[in-house]
Amino acid sequence: MLRSKYSIVFIIIFGLIIHKYYCKEQTYEHLQSKPLRFHVAEFNFDHVSNVYAITLWILLGSLAKVGFHLSHRLTEKFPESCLLIILGLIVGALLYVTHLAEQKAYVLNSETFFLFLLPPIILEAGYFMPNRPFFDNLGTILLLAIVNTLFNTICIGLTLWGFQFTPIYGGTQFDMLPCLVFAALISAVDPVAVLATFTEIHVNDMLYIVVFGESLLNDAVSVVLYRMFESFAKIGQANIIVMDVVLGCLSFFVVALGGVLIGIIFGVIACFTTKFTEHTPVLEPLIILVYAYLAYLTSEMFSVSGILAITFCGMVMKQYVSFNISKKSDATTEYVLKMLSSIMETIIFMFMGLSTVSDNHSWNTGFVLMTILLCLVYRVIGIAIFTNIANCWRLLELTRIDMLIMSYGGLRGAIAFALALVLDETKIERKKEFVTATIAVVFFTVFIQGITIGPLVKLLNVRRKQIEEPTMSAKLTNRMMDHVMTCLEEISGSGGSNSLRDRIRNFDRIYFKRWLLRDTPEIRMDIKLLQTFKKINTQSAMRVHDASRGLVPAAAATTSTADEPGSGNNLKSDRRFENISELIAANLPENTVPDLMFFENRGGDHHHDDVQMHHFLDSNLFNARPRAAIHHRNQDETASSDDGTHNRFEKSYHHRDHRYLPSPLDREHLRGPKTISKIIHNANRLPAIDPHPATTTPRQHESRSQSISTTRENSPGSSKHRTKSLSKKSNQTPPSTSVHSENEGTGATAAERNHPWRHSSATDEAKTLNVGSKHGNDPHLHNLPITGEDISGTYQKSPESMGEYATTTKPEEQSSRPDVRVLFKKRSQNTLEHQDDDPDESVTRL
Amino acid sequence: MGSNASIMLQQEDLQNICQQTGFTTKQVQRLYSRFKTLDKRDCGFLTREDLLCIPEVNINPLGERLIDVIMNDYGENNKINFKQFIFLLAKFRHGKVKASTTEFNTRECKLRFLFDMYDRNHDMKIDRNELLEVLKMMVGGNIHEEQIATIADHTISELDKDGDKSITFEEFCKTLERIDADDKMSMKFLS
């Protein structure tokens, strides 16, 4: 069944070939027996048998998982891995009794395991690796992964071998080298098992990363030791010379560093590739997966550590790829990774159960018990020794309780089992005993330790992982602490982890980010901070969305459906405005960014609630977007990538414009006709500024506003030209901005002013003019000038920032949350006050 | 170096400092030699320029602000002498173990230092302008004023419980309850 030694694709191709061949033969036979007739339908299981079986197994695994989670009581008490193993055992027993399939077919095949089942899990682990704790604890992790694993292997191997001189094994002989081979595979902590268990018990990040990091990185050690001892066993104990041992030690560095290197190389290539995928966003997730898998396969090909390779590949990719690929692709990648690793994990545990029921065993009570005991004892000893050593340099020392959990979390799993299965029985005579002992250890750790570790963590009151929503203040203070500590470390000359991290970050920004990202972030720009804000904003928006389900639509329904985009807005009644904003305000959760409520006030353009909410949410996502750094390509691109530049462009800016709509129009409500006349007045001044006369098609609107922003702009229709040629307006020298994304970068400023969304023809003269108008005056653009007084007395704003940043969507003076309407009024007053000054300023700038 | 007798590290001074701050003698000596290295003009105190000479501090977005705090709150007349310097650093010893806690490196002291990074007018409140200033420094780049203002407002609204649009020290501490500020605001002093 799952014995396919080739990739699935291969099977399919082969299946087709075989099918053809079969058909011919069948035809031949048929001809002999009876005249050939056309068959309406044929039953041809052989044709699909392999793939069918695989699919069925996957289905069984998924259904089992779904089933387990239907019962809370079950999953509370037992980890999923245990349940899956039990299921596997049951199915295995059934198959064994009924002889439905031959045993070879459903026993875990180590090639399948290493080529298909393992990589997705490890990739997921690498991709979602919490980098900060990982690198903070790297020293400890490395010490444990390398030295502790070595220590465990040697001790367990020698002790097991030593006990053969006692009657404990019942007289069975175990040679030293086979014992060491066995020890090499049994002493490595298993990442799959650790992941499965630790994700359920939610210990704090540090503890988790120490155990999990160890389990990932010890792969190099265990691979080397396993191979070394295995080949020694083949060479024969007598023939080993010192050279072999030296080479073995050397090979460790090759295996470990080689794996890391291959991983990083492929990761970098993947990032570099995604730099150019803007026109084919659909393929982005695939590219990421394929590169990672290639990294794994390549390193397996060179027989270096594939696990290290794919881990580091994932870690590197995560750093850069998410800035390059579109939001959708990002989410898809994450989801696909989660899905793959989850199903692979399920299958692995199920197959462990299945494979247990076989004839391949030879139970040796003494040996099994001895192995379990030694694994436990040496784990505790090893952790105790090496954690204490690590504590010498650790700032945050690991306590005794931490040590206990670390020892107890040293679970063994499927990797050990798969390795035991590939042992060569001709060289290692005791393979069956080893397989049995491995299964026993795995079951012991997964069942006994896996089930009890949760209660133990509770009992010992281990610090849990804080599952909380990110708060801006916490993030901000965190960053501040980092900066402060970096400085202080430099000042005091102690050179701790903070300053190291800072240096790496700078290096990363100067070299890697520049080459791997589509947009180079600004120097000193704190992307993380902005991202956090964006995330919080998104969450609030989502909550608004959830909370106001059914309410906002109702509000929208009360509004006149007759307003035509662009023209009818002025006619909207105050009543409507109040309705929606009140509704939203009423539904706002605590801690919502206050300005959220200003965005959706005029969703009435859209008669569909979903569309309305969609824009509402989308516009809110914008807020934290740094001007040159984070790349949020609009998702509409996916659909529109081949519509030609023009069309595509319009679509991509579709949302952006929505953002600018709301409050100016609301302002218009409040201001009434007076404002409108003012707008017209402003607009009339524009032709003087604007080199081109106003035209009516949205396309030209674009060019209008662009040409205002930069007169250098020459080919407005092409999105690429436009953003490229836009250079930074602020007097800061643009440091390394090789910005040529579609909409980001400083070019966004200009882009934001485009109005492809308004397809209204020139029904409203003022409007049309305004569309083509400058910063500062256009109510559509929403570039309500923020004045220095508004924001803070401390900031003196240059005329640049007045024009450039005058895209405010929120009243600056608002910090608590007073009534919405009050705010609007205030703001509109502000606008009126400052409106007249702006155009001149921006003109001078240009 | 060290020719100036007034800044030579006297034995009893050393003892005193060790006792008060919890540094070991070796750590103090090490910090002293660091101090001397930074003090290029060999005048017994560090000035703002001395600290800004350290490249990492110079490029750090909060470097200048930190030096502000150091000079104003810990030194005097824009200078900081060795004793002040070491009392400043004593705040950042790791103080989780009971025995190593002194009056300087309590959690509150560390938080206070952090709070002072925002609160430059010492009114025991972080108001919107102060927050904006810090945000601008940290976020850097040319972000919309509007965005930064939004972030500031959001941050204040997260913390502000009494609705006075500013953050008091108590409110400030509250958010940091969940964060291991104690660990994060500590460093390993080499000895």
UniProtKB/TrEMBL annotation, chain A:
Residue ranges annotated as compositionally biased, kind Acidic residues, are: 835-846
Q: How does it sit in the membrane?
A: Multi-pass membrane protein
- Its Gene Ontology molecular function terms? potassium:proton antiporter activity; sodium:proton antiporter activity
**Main location per UniProt?**
membrane
Q: Do you know which InterPro entries this protein is assigned to?
A: Cation/H_exchanger_CPA1, Cation/H_exchanger_TM, NaH_exchanger
UniProt record, GO biological process? regulation of intracellular pH; sodium ion import across plasma membrane
Identify the residues that the record assigns to the Cation/H+ exchanger transmembrane domain, covering every copy.
65-458
Matching entries from NCBIfam families are given as: b_cpa1
Specify the protein name: Sodium/hydrogen exchanger
Protein's organism: Adineta ricciae (Rotifer)
The uppermost taxa in this organism's lineage are: Eukaryota, Metazoa, Spiralia, Gnathifera, Rotifera
From TrEMBL, chain B:
Which protein is depicted? EF-hand domain-containing protein
- Places the protein is found: Cell membrane; Cytoplasm; Nucleus
Q: Keywords on this record? A: Calcium, Cell membrane, Cytoplasm, Lipoprotein, Membrane, Metal-binding, Myristate, Nucleus, Phosphoprotein, Protein transport, Repeat, Transport
**What InterPro entries does the database record attribute to this sequence?**
Calcineurin_B_homologous, EF-hand-dom_pair, EF_Hand_1_Ca_BS, EF_hand_dom
**Principal subcellular localisation of the protein:** membrane
* Species of origin: Adineta ricciae
Taxon lineage: Eukaryota, Metazoa, Spiralia, Gnathifera, Rotifera
In the record, biological process GO terms are:
protein transport
Is Amino-acid biosynthesis included in the keywords of this UniProt record? no
Where in this chain does the entry annotate a coiled-coil region? none
Stored SUPFAM superfamilies:
EF-hand (SSF47473)
What Pfam families has UniProt attached to this entry? EF-hand_7
Occurrences of domain EF-hand (ranges)? 110-141, 147-182
To which protein family does this belong?
Belongs to the calcineurin regulatory subunit family. CHP subfamily.
Listed under GO cellular component are: cytoplasm; nucleus; plasma membrane
Name the PANTHER family for this protein. EG:114D9.1 PROTEIN-RELATED (PTHR46002)
Q: Can you provide one Gene Ontology molecular function annotated for this UniProt record?
A: calcium ion binding
